[in-house]
Write a structure and sequence with these properties.
about 850 residues; alpha+beta; 8-stranded mixed sheet; 5-stranded mixed sheet; 23 helices; binds 2-acetamido-2-deoxy-beta-D-glucopyranose; binds zinc ion
Length: about 850
């Protein structure tokens, strides 16, 4: 039968029972959903579930310079680096930098070959060679036989006529010239305008493998060394690097008058954490104990006070981490700088953290509370790396997940310390756990941990910076900290940092220290930390735990969003996990239990009468939960009688789990939709956000089908009370709600009320926007609401509204404001405007 028939029939049903309300719509939606889904499986999650073909490996070569990893023969100790970036174009219209570098290295194993990374640098030749080699503490070195650049593996190869002596040091000198390109990698340039005047900043992004693009170096994280940096720059510009500037002199080089700034030698550190910046930026500063904290940005931004919020929170967050790690901040200063062009959100260069402007600058008149939260959490993330990552560094990139997952977890702790009223720690569930569940539930996911020998090329390293490393890493570390307790977790962390400071580790070193803390504190665990964590780290995905409250039987299985997908990645643990289960029975928290087998019976989970169970309290565990229908029904009853008995995070969980179980065809779509019924009584952000995330998927599925109308009616009915609630608590939209997440939910209320056609909402947003159009110098829309109000007003309006938005976008001098307008321009319903 054709699909038209089904849809008409469904709509017919909806038509008949329309007065009966929500349930009818829910049932109709479920029916159409099933049809749409069977029609086109590939639209199921918008992601392909096909497995990537294995990457072809080039023909193996036995020459050391054809391998991507450095041999274990040499170890750098100190570098002396001079760099001179030119902030004006040369006669060929190119921006360049010049420099020289000498590295003192120790020969660990006798060798007649020096391999040092160098990429896209033009090296000066001395005689016929690209380098000069001299003695360190030992004998005169053998002479150089031949040097060349091995482009594919990014090495400068220096072949010698004799052997270097093990145990002795030598010094290698190079002189070079590179392009200061606008490619956001290595030593690069960032441009911005002050009025009509173009300004150029020379800055760096070394992670993961671009330090070699600014000077020849042993560019692997375990090749830690001390760096003496000197920057040469124009009078009137300021030079920054990882260390404090210790000497600034004016001098003339090659007939050019310049300033030369020398920096204190760094701590022993990895190349990927280096940073060099020349700009004419301004700064504000503060002292926190003996640490100098400075916030740098464009002069205009500093003059407008946009660095003040970052300065306010940095000191408290640094103090928090010193206490959390039980380890003092290892440097004398902490510079943080906002760059107009920056690829990542931020980069944790030791002592000189770089940010996108939107991640560091806050303007009380223009920034929303979401912008503010992003600033607090990103600062906390980067400061957390000062110890975890910078002081103690993973040996190789295959363990990137531990570095990034860790910082992505504790960023919430640091931000919570700076802003204790926000409840920001709860938001990890939406921002990381639910987000990565969507990716990790695909058969094409991958484990957190990769083998060292699987990750060699720069491209393979870059691939690791994904949601699995960051968000799943954060989720499983949070789970670990929760089942150990934060006290035990922090104790293991502290001894780990203390033992390995200025050194490198593999992830099992952390497990060793956490296990020691478990033993020292007499914490009871069903298995060693290693054995529990291996299952989460070495196999991809996560389980769905099913609890049958009529029998007390628990079972687990690998959760796959597409039930038909084929998992062809083997797992030595058969896709079974050691699952910590915190749970409650009818509102009363119970003792934590563990699911250690595929199935187990927990008698306490057998319920009688109206008792219900919610497992995975606060979603501290990295898994989904399903129940027998009886328990689901009792949960739904509880939600519609007194939802507050179920913790707010778990209300969000019930919705998200139900929708995803439905997509996996484990439960009926009807059940998922029914979890949204109680929302007309809900005012909290997390359940609403969770529901809207999932309903957005329905909107995408149905926005061209006949059930779209009834669905809009249903959503309107659910959201109207929320809209009225916010109208009431904001005194007819004249106040900002006091709670941080209430401010977020106010945005949801307006977004959904307007998009589902609540008239008073459209009047409100278009009214505000009109007022602004009449008086562009005075925007009446609160920064929190701008994204949604701009979008709603432009969607409801025509060319005049769109043109005004474009005009304001082009005139915006604040990055966050420009972002909001740009995205709103895409909200118009007019194809010809969209086309523009
Ligand atoms: C490296 O460059 C700096 C600045 O141009 C210069 O002063 C220094 O002499 C150079 N070092 C060597 C060994 O040539
Ligand atoms: C490096 O050398 C190449 C080849 O001579 C040249 O095209 C390029 O412009 C040089 N780069 C710089 C930064 O001078
Ligand atoms: C680095 O600088 C320090 C202090 O200026 C100096 O004592 C040390 O010798 C320098 N190291 C090298 C390799 O030049
Ligand atoms: C270097 O020269 C500039 C411009 O002449 C001057 O403003 C600055 O104070 C001088 N710096 C030093 C360290 O002499
Ligand atoms: C920074 O802190 C000061 C002093 O507590 C306060 O007056 C100011 O409002 C804060 N600024 C921001 C942007 O939070
Ligand atoms: C903090 O570290 C010191 C040694 O560095 C140790 O003596 C002390 O017990 C640690 N404190 C805690 C709470 O772990
Ligand atoms: C939790 O465990 C403790 C100690 O074993 C026990 O005394 C207590 O009754 C248990 N609580 C619940 C709710 O089962
Ligand atoms: C769950 O989270 C809430 C809010 O953060 C907190 O008050 C509560 O103590 C947490 N409950 C458990 C069992 O961790
Ligand atoms: C729960 O157990 C009962 C009794 O064995 C069984 O009939 C029912 O199908 C089970 N439900 C689930 C969801 O496993
Ligand atoms: C809202 O709450 C009231 C009382 O708390 C309850 O009677 C009603 O059924 C709830 N509505 C929904 C849709 O759950
Ligand atoms: C509006 O707020 C007041 C108190 O601020 C409260 O008493 C009243 O019930 C609220 N009305 C609605 C419709 O939420
Ligand atoms: C709320 O504000 C609107 C627009 O300013 C106004 O028309 C309306 O009368 C106000 N309602 C109340 C209850 O104050
Ligand atoms: Zn990070």
């Amino acid at each position: 039968m054709g699909k038209g028939f089904y849809i008409s029939k469904t709509l017919g049903i909806v038509g008949i029972v329309v007065g009966a309300g929500a349930v009818a719509t829910i049932i109709a939606l479920s029916v159409v959903y099933a049809q749409e889904k069977s029609k086109n499986v590939s639209t199921e999650d918008g992601q392909t579930t096909t497995v990537k073909p294995p990457t072809t490996t080039p023909t193996p070569s036995n020459e050391p310079w054809d391998k991507y990893r450095l041999p274990d023969t040499l170890q750098p100790e100190t570098y002396n680096v001079f760099l001179w970036p030119r902030l004006q174009e040369d006669e060929h219209g190119m921006y360049i930098f010049t420099g020289n570098s000498s590295v003192v290295f120790r020969c660990v194993k006798e060798t007649d070959l020096i391999l040092i990374h160098s990429n896209k640098l033009n090296l000066t030749t001395f005689g016929e060679h690209h380098a000069k080699l001299s003695a360190g503490d030992g004998p005169a070195p053998p002479s150089i036989k031949k040097t060349w650049l091995q482009v594919e593996t990014q090495f400068l190869v220096v072949q010698l006529n004799g052997k270097l002596t093990a145990g002795k040091t030598y010094e290698l000198f190079t002189e070079f010239r590179g392009e200061l390109a606008d490619d956001l990698g290595g030593f690069y340039r960032s441009e911005y305008y002050v009025g009509q005047v173009k300004k150029v900043v020379a800055t760096t992004q070394m992670q993961p493998t671009d330090a070699r693009k600014s000077f020849p170096c042993f560019d692997e994280p375990a090749m830690k060394a001390i760096f003496n940096i000197t920057l040469i720059h124009d009078h009137g510009t300021v030079a920054l690097s990882n260390g404090m500037d210790i000497e600034t002199v004016n001098t003339t080089i090659d007939g050019v008058e310049v300033t030369q700034t020398k920096f204190a030698p760094t701590e022993k550190m990895s190349t990927y954490l280096l940073a060099f910046i020349v700009s004419d930026f301004a700064s504000i500063d503060a002292m926190e104990d003996n640490v100098l904290i400075r916030i740098w940005a464009r002069r205009e931004a500093i003059a407008e006070g946009q660095g003040q919020y970052a300065l306010n929170v940095t000191g408290p967050i640094l103090k928090f981490f010193e206490k959390y790690y039980n380890s003092t901040y290892p440097l004398s200063k902490s510079d943080q700088i906002a760059l107009p062009d920056f690829n990542a959100g931020a980069m944790e260069n030791w002592g000189l953290i770089t940010y996108r402007e939107t991640a560091l600058l806050y303007d009380p008149k223009m920034s929303s509370n979401g912008n503010k939260e992003r600033i607090a959490t990103i600062i906390a993330h980067e400061l957390a790396h000062m110890w975890f990552g910078n002081l103690v560094t993973l040996k190789w990139w295959n363990d990137l997940w531990l570095n990034e997952g860790f910082a992505s977890y504790v960023e919430y702790l640091g931000a919570d310390h700076a802003e204790p009223t926000w409840g920001v720690k709860d938001l990890i569930v939406l921002g990381d756990v639910h987000r990565v569940f969507a990716v990790d539930a695909l058969a094409s996911s991958h484990p957190l941990s990769s083998r060292e020998d699987e990750i060699n090329k720069p491209a393979q390293i870059s691939e690791l910076f994904d949601a699995i490393s960051y968000s799943k890493g954060a989720a499983v570390l949070r789970m670990l900290s929760e089942f150990l307790t934060e006290r035990v977790f922090a104790q293991g962390l502290s001894t780990y940092l203390n033992e390995f400071k200025f050194k490198n580790t593999v992830y099992t070193d952390l497990w060793d220290h956490l296990q020691k803390a478990v033993e020292a504190t007499g914490t009871s665990l069903p298995h060693r930390v290693h054995d529990i964590m291996n299952r989460w780290v070495l196999q991809m995905g996560f389980p769905v735990v099913t609890i049958n409250t009529s029998t007390g039987l628990l079972s687990q299985r690998h959760f796959l969003l597409d039930p038909e997908s084929v998992v062809d990645r083997p797992s030595e643990f058969n896709y079974e996990w050691y699952v910590p289960i915190k749970w409650m029975k009818t509102g009363v928290e119970q003792n934590q239990t563990w699911l250690l087998e595929k199935t187990a019976t927990v008698n306490e989970m057998k319920t009688t009468g109206a008792e219900w169970i919610v497992a995975n309290l606060n979603v501290t565990g990295y898994y989904r939960v399903n129940y027998d229908m009886g328990n689901w029904e009792r949960l739904l009853t509880q939600l519609s009688s007194n939802h507050q008995v179920i913790p707010v995070i778990n209300r969000a969980q019930l919705i998200d789990d139900a929708f995803n179980l439905a997509r996996a065809t484990i439960v009926d779509t009807t059940l998922a939709l029914r979890t949204t019924k109680y929302l007309s009584n809900e005012t909290e952000y997390m359940p609403w956000e969770s529901a809207l995330d999932n309903l957005d998927y329905f909107f995408l599925m149905f926005d061209r089908s006949e059930v779209y109308g009834p669905m809009q009616d249903y959503v309107r009915k659910q959201v109207e009370p929320l809209f009225e609630h916010f109208k009431n608590i904001t005194n007819n939209w004249t106040k900002v709600p006091s709670g941080h997440t209430d401010q977020y939910n106010q945005v949801n209320a307006i977004r959904m009320a307007c998009s589902s056609g609540v008239k008073s909402c459209l009047d409100l947003t278009t009214g505000w926007y009109k007022q602004w159009m009449q008086n562009p110098a005075n925007n009446p829309i609160h920064p929190n609401l701008r994204t949604t109000v701009y979008c709603s007003a432009i969607a409801a309006g025509g060319a005049a509204e769109w043109d005004f938005g474009l005009k304001m976008f082009l005139a915006a001098s604040i990055a966050t404001e420009a972002d909001k307008l740009r995205s709103a321009l895409a909200c118009t319903k007019q194809p010809w405007l969209l086309n523009r």
